[in-house]
Structures are given as structure tokens and as C-alpha cells.
Amino acid sequence: MSAVPGPSSPTHRRSSSVAACFRTFPASLTAGSPSAKQLEKFSSKPAISTTISSSGWIAISTPADVRLYRMGDEDRKGNIKRYAKVTLRSNQGKKIRATALSDDLLAIITDSHLLVYEYRDPDGLGSPMEKQIDQGGRWRPKAVKIFQKGSVGRRSEAYAWIAVGGQGQNGVNLFKCTYSPYSNCWSSQADRVILPCPGNTGFVRIVGFSPSRFNRDDIFMVLGVTESNWMHCWTVREQSSGAGMESHCDFDISCGTVAPSNSGSVTSAELFLCPLGNPYVFCSVNRKPGCTLLPTFLIPIGTSHFDWSTTFQDECILPEFTSGQVLGGTVTPNGHFIVAIEGSEVVLLTLQTAVDGGLTCLRDHLRWNCALRLGPSGGAALSISIKESFGRLDIVAVDGQGSVMSAQLSVANMPPTQLPHRVPVPQTPEMPGNGAIFQLSSGESTEGSRYSASSTS
After folding, report:
1. Which CATH number is 162's domain given?
2. Which residues touch 365 (CB under 8 Å, ≥6 apart)?
3. Of the four listed, 21, 193, 361, 397, which is most buried by Cβ atoms within 10 Å?
4. What is the pLDDT of residues 263-279, one digit of tens each?
5. Where are the beta strands (DSSP E) in 288-344?
6. 154: containing domain
7. Where does the record place the region Disordered (predicted)?
8. Which distant-in-sequence residues (6+ apart) come within 8 Å of 2 by Cβ?
């Protein structure tokens, strides 16, 4: 499939071997990788949503329940054991729409409610916070993501933002919760922050946050992709009077054309920082005959550190994805590698600086069989997570059939992720807790409530 021509298309890109601005690292699969496993007690119905935390927990959901698993906790057959199961009650909405995990929190959105659990409590899951978010039936949620700073179990404060993508011009709603070591529980702000999508008539179906090493305590970015294939990026600033949108920019992934809905779709979109500290979006696209969407691409975000205004700049098509059918992908936290699933293969690309600025990829890249059962719906419920350490990458992917692929890669001399010098990020001390669960209040109070914890089988 040919790439869409343009000023940043592959035909205009040159090798960056002469003037690379950051070091690249060779990667190779370790012995025994990849490996395939199955989730224990998995539903016979395909999942509608999967999510993986950076600490190796997996949540997989059907319209009626969510099942939680922990990597490394296996039964005698080698299946990953189920840790807990959450079943939707009739007063929590008609069906589950999506789930998200952070280091400590599990967020579930139904067609009307937001439910949040602290899932790493050693005593199991307790009662969740519950908040009706559909504004009396006038707004319906579709997607959810969590950004968490700090962690329960350490001796300082932590906080989390939850982004819920939904219907219409009030496309993304933000909710914040905080953890205090003094009260030993999570609490939440009563008000939501609404991020507008001008002209949007459908749903925001993908949401995401800028990475920790970009974010400051008072400012961060939120990403959203609509059903009509518009990408939105909002800068959010938090002040003493409350949080609000600082700037907004958007980008038309369909290049101003309208194509049949079955001809292709955006499968993932992720904000990341390249090793020099510049913000980019990686966007994967599953293209079929007749598709007018851009092929899988990178796009830089221009930012002003005077007023934090943002603009999408020229996109860069990635020709390394030869079939065009990219079912999902992500970028390593250090910004050195892209990991994506194309057809039945996992692809690992190494990012480097292009001669004329921006990013491109090394010609040499890794491919291996993904060992997943993607089914007729492709990667509809596919999730990919990467954990990095000194000289090593650990990749985990899960599909809607309950199959799990894990792979370990050796990356010689790759150091741990470092904060870029160009964007100062204050270090937030971190702190303790033992199973706190916060409750969002619909009134004025922002105090949380604690519940006894018990696992649901």
C-alpha cells in the first residue's frame, strides 16, 4: 500500500546517520521470547476492552463484568490466575463501555457511571466510588484513561487524573482524585473539567495523557481522537482556583475526505516525548481498501513555553508498516522505540533524529509472531504495555480472546528513563496506604470514604 505523499512523506526523508541528535541502542529478543499464555477463567465472550498497567496487572472486560489478573501469578497449567472479578450492578448502568488501570486505580465506565477501585489492596477489592457522569442522560461516555503521579504505599501524597471521552462537543471530561497519607484514603474534587471538541457530533473514542516526564505539577496535555477521525490535543493548567484548558489544537487524520466506516480506523494514539524532550503523537491506523485515512504516522506538537499554546506540525508517515493494517501500538517511556502489531506480527522500530528535523526510524527493525488470537474483529480490544529497565525492555500484549504475549528484549547499554532538561518536572514525593478507595461526591464535599476490602470471585 503506497504512502500518502506530502512534505513529510517517506520520499522526502533522508538517513539521519550523519547528524543523529540522540543515541540509538540495538535491541534483540532474549532466549525464550516471545512466550504465550492464557488468562484463567476467561469468559467465552470476546472482550470489549483490555488494559495493562505498568506494574503488570491486566484488566479485561465484557459488557457485564471486569476480570483482573496479575502477570507472574500462574496456575499449574501455566495460565494466569484470576485475581478478582467485578460484576456490574443494575444501578451502575446498563453495560460496561471501557476500563483503565494506573499503578493503583482501576477505572470502569458504564453507559452512565464512573466506578473506581484501588485494586492493589492486599485484602482484595472493596466497594468502589460511584459517580453518575451522564449528566442526566444528556452525555454518554465511550473511553477512559488514567494518569497517576506518586503511589500508595510510599510516604507522601499522590494524585490521579481520569479522562473520560464521550459524546458531542463536550468531548472529554476530567476528574481528579488525590491520596493523603494523613487520612490514608483517596478523595476527589466534586467538579469536572470539560475539554471541548468544536464541531464534534460523534464520540471521542480514544483518550490519553502526556507522559510523566513531560508533565509538571500544574500543567499537562490530554489527547483525544473522535469517531470522525479528528485528533485533539488540550493543554490543561491547574491553579489555586481550579483546573482549566490553557490551549487546544486539532488535526484531521482523514485529510478532509469521508470514507466508508468499514474501510479503516485509528487503532491507537499516544502522546510521548522523544529523547530530546520534544512532544510527539504516535498514531496507528488499520487501513483497508478504499481507506482515505493517513497511514500510521508520527506528528510533532509545537509548544510555546511562554503561553503553553500548542500546534500540530507536519506529520511523518512510517513506511516500515508495509501492509498498512496496524492493529495497535505504543512507544517506550524513554521515547527510543515504537512497538506495534501489524497483521499477525509484532514490530519493533528504533526512532532516530532525521537530518531535516523531526523523527524517523532506523532501516533495521525486529519482527516476530505476536502469538495472539486477534479474531475477526482484529485488534478491537488489543492492549500493549512496555516496561523498561537498564538494558532491557519487557513487552506484554493481551487480546480480546484472553491470550497474552510477553517478550523480553536486550537493549545493550540503554540507561533508565531520564527527565529531559528542556521541561523541568518537579519530583513528587510518594507515600503509604493500605487499600484506600475514594468516593467522588456529587455535592460540595471533596472528602473520600474508606471501605473494607474483599475479593470478588
Report:
1. 2.130.10.10
2. 320, 347, 348, 349, 350
3. 397
4. 789 999 999 999 988 89
5. 297-303, 310-312, 316-317, 326-331, 337-342
6. 88-252
7. 429-457
8. none
